[in-house]
Amino acid sequence: MYRLLVLYNKPEDPESWEKEYLTGHVPLASMHPNLRNLRVGKVQDTLEGEHSFYYAAELEWDSKEDMLKDLQADTSVSRAAKEDGKKYKGQRIVIGYDLNEYKADK
């Protein structure tokens, strides 16, 4: 599995930001054909205490290649998601990683 973790900083107007994000950007992002899962939610806290993050999104593909196909595709969905995503530039951190699962010893 390949995942992108996106952490958004707290916006000036959280209520309108969240409404626009959930009704605009999330539906666009969920239309990528190779996307397996999309999870979003408000950041509650961190292990370090104080933080500036407001929202988090986790997107999951079978592979990095599938993610790149979706994000680099010249389709109306990809173009719309990229255009919409520009408004979040500078307000977020995007981290890509391969997922390896390990079972906890109990």
Structural account:
With 106 residues, the chain is α+β, with helices and mostly antiparallel strands. It has a single domain, classed as Alpha-Beta Plaits, CATH 3.30.70. The chain has helices at residues 14-29, 64-72, 76-85, and strands spanning 2-9, 37-42, 53-61, 92-98. Helix 1 (14-29) packs antiparallel against helix 3. It is flat and about 40 Å long.
SSE topology:
Layout: E1 2-9, H1 14-29, E2 37-42, E3 53-61, H2 64-72, H3 76-85, E4 92-98
Antiparallel strand pairs: 1-3, 1-4, 2-3
Helix pairs in contact: 1-3
In the CATH hierarchy, the architecture is 2-Layer Sandwich
For the biggest sheet, the summary is: 4 strands, antiparallel
Low-confidence stretches: none
Number of helices: 3
The fold-level CATH name is: Alpha-Beta Plaits
Q: How would you describe the shape?
A: flat
Instruction: Quote the distance from N terminus to C terminus.
Output: 25 Å
Q: Structural class of the secondary structure composition?
A: alpha+beta
Give the rounded overall mean pLDDT.
86
Number of strands: 4
Percent in strands? 25-35%
Counted up, domains total: 1
Quick one: CATH class? Answer: Alpha Beta
Task: Please estimate the helix content.
Answer: 25-40%
Q: What strand order characterises the main sheet?
A: 2-3-1-4
